[in-house]
C-alpha cells in the first residue's frame, strides 16, 4: 500500500513520471487488445447478440463513495458534497416525497373578495394561494399576492377574477421531470393529484430546488420553529412532516424499504392505529415517542436512542 499512498500524496509528479511509460505500453499492446476484442465480438455475433462497446460508467453507489472519499480528503467542501449527493438522488425522488400534503394546504374559495385575500396574505405570509370551487378536489387556479397590489381597494373583484392558471402533476412524477415542467409552464406552484384525480397536495419550485441545495429560508421563514431540533445527547424533537430521507441521512438509519414518506407516517404505520400522545414505537435502536398530534395526524415526535428496542408500546 505504500506506493499507493505515496502516489496519492504526490499525484501530479507521479502522473508525469508514469505518463510516457504507460503511453508506450498502450501503443505496444493496442494491436493485441484489438485482436482480442474483435474475436470476442465475433463470438457474441455468432450467438445472435449485438456487441456493445465497453462503457466506462459508475453506478450511483460508486459515485456516492467517490464523493464521500473526495470530501474526506478535502477535495470537496461539505456544501459541495451535499449538493452532489442530492443531485445523485434527485431523479430517484418523486413529488409525493416533497409535496405539502393536502391537510396542510392553505387555499381560498373562488368567491373570496379582495379584502379577504389581503387578510389571508397578511395572516399566513404566503405568496400564492390555490383557488378552489366547492372543495380541494376542485382547484381551479392560483392567486399570487403581487397581483393584488394593482387592484383598487374598492374593487368588487374576487379570487376567481384574479387567479392564474395552475399546472397539475401526478404524485409519482420524478423531481427532474417536475423541474422541467415548472420551467416549461413558467410556474412557481403546481397541484399534485393522486391516481384517482383528487388533490394529494401541492409542490412549489422552491420545494424542488431545496432537494438539490438544501433548505432555503426567506425573511418570513426565519422565525419558524425548527422541524428537526436536537434536545440533548441522542435526543431529537422532530416534526411529523419531516421526510424519512432527511431522518435517514441525519441519524444514519436504513429505512429503505419503509412504505412511508414522513416520520409521522412511519409512527402511524408501526402503531397500526391513530396515534395518541405518549404512544411510542422502536425503530432500529431509536424510540419514536409521540409528543403532539393534530387531529389524526402525528405532528411531533421525540426520537431518542435506546439500548434494547421494543416493537410497540403505549403509555
Notes on the structure:
The protein is of the alpha+beta class and 315 residues long. It folds into 3 domains: 1-56, no CATH class; 95-213, Roll (CBS-domain), CATH 3.10.580; 228-314, Uridine Diphospho-n-acetylenolpyruvylglucosamine Reductase, domain 3. The chain contains 10 helices and 13 strands. It has helices at residues 2-9, 11-46, 60-72, 78-90, 114-124, 159-162, 175-185, 205-213, 244-251, 263-271, and strands at residues 100-101, 108-109, 128-133, 135-144, 168-170, 189-193, 199-204, 228-232, 235-239, 279-283, 286-294, 297-305, 312-314. The strands form 3 sheets. Strands 8-9-12-11-10-13 form a 6-stranded antiparallel beta sheet, covered by helices on one side. Strand 5 (168-170), helix 7 and strand 6 (189-193) form a beta-alpha-beta unit. Helix 1 crosses helix 2 (11-46). The longest helix is centred in the first third of the chain and has 36 residues, at 11-46. The radius of gyration is 27 Å and the shape is extended. It starts with a helix and ends with a strand. 17% of the residues are buried.
Label this structure with key terms.
315 residues, alpha+beta, CBS-domain, Uridine Diphospho-n-acetylenolpyruvylglucosamine Reductase, domain 3, four-stranded mixed sheet, 10 helices, 22% strand
Amino acid at each position: 500500500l505504500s506506493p499507493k499512498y505515496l502516489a496519492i500524496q504526490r499525484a501530479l509528479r507521479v502522473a508525469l513520471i508514469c505518463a510516457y511509460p504507460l503511453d508506450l505500453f498502450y501503443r505496444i499492446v493496442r494491436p493485441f487488445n484489438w485482436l482480442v476484442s474483435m474475436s470476442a465480438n465475433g463470438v457474441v455475433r455468432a450467438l445472435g447478440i449485438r456487441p456493445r462497446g465497453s462503457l466506462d460508467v459508475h453506478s450511483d453507489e460508486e459515485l456516492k463513495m467517490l464523493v464521500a472519499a473526495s470530501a474526506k480528503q478535502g477535495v470537496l467542501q461539505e456544501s459541495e458534497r451535499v449538493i452532489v449527493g442530492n443531485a445523485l438522488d434527485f431523479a430517484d425522488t418523486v413529488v409525493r416525497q416533497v409535496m405539502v400534503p393536502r391537510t396542510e394546504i392553505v387555499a381560498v374559495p373562488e368567491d373570496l373578495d379582495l379584502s379577504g385575500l389581503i387578510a389571508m396574505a397578511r395572516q399566513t405570509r404566503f405568496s400564492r394561494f390555490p383557488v378552489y370551487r366547492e372543495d380541494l378536489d376542485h382547484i381551479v387556479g392560483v392567486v399570487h399576492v403581487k397581483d393584488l397590489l394593482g387592484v383598487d381597494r374598492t374593487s368588487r373583484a374576487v379570487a376567481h377574477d384574479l387567479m392564474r392558471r395552475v399546472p397539475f402533476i401526478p404524485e409519482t412524477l420524478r423531481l427532474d421531470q417536475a423541474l422541467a415542467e415548472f420551467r416549461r409552464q413558467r410556474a412557481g406552484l403546481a397541484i399534485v393529484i393522486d391516481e384517482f384525480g383528487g388533490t394529494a397536495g401541492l409542490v412549489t419550485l422552491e420545494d424542488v430546488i431545496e432537494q438539490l441545495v438544501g433548505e432555503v429560508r426567506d425573511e418570513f421563514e426565519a422565525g419558524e420553529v425548527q422541524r428537526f431540533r436536537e434536545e440533548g445527547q441522542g435526543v431529537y424533537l422532530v416534526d411529523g412532516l419531516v421526510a424519512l430521507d432527511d431522518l435517514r441521512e441525519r441519524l444514519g438509519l436504513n429505512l429503505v424499504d419503509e412504505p412511508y414518506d414522513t416520520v409521522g407516517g412511519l409512527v402511524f404505520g408501526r402503531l397500526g392505529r391513530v396515534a395518541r400522545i405518549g404512544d411510542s414505537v422502536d425503530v432500529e435502536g431509536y424510540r419514536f415517542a409521540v409528543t403532539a398530534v393534530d387531529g389524526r395526524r402525528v405532528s411531533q415526535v421525540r426520537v431518542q436512542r435506546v439500548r434494547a428496542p421494543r416493537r410497540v408500546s403505549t403509555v
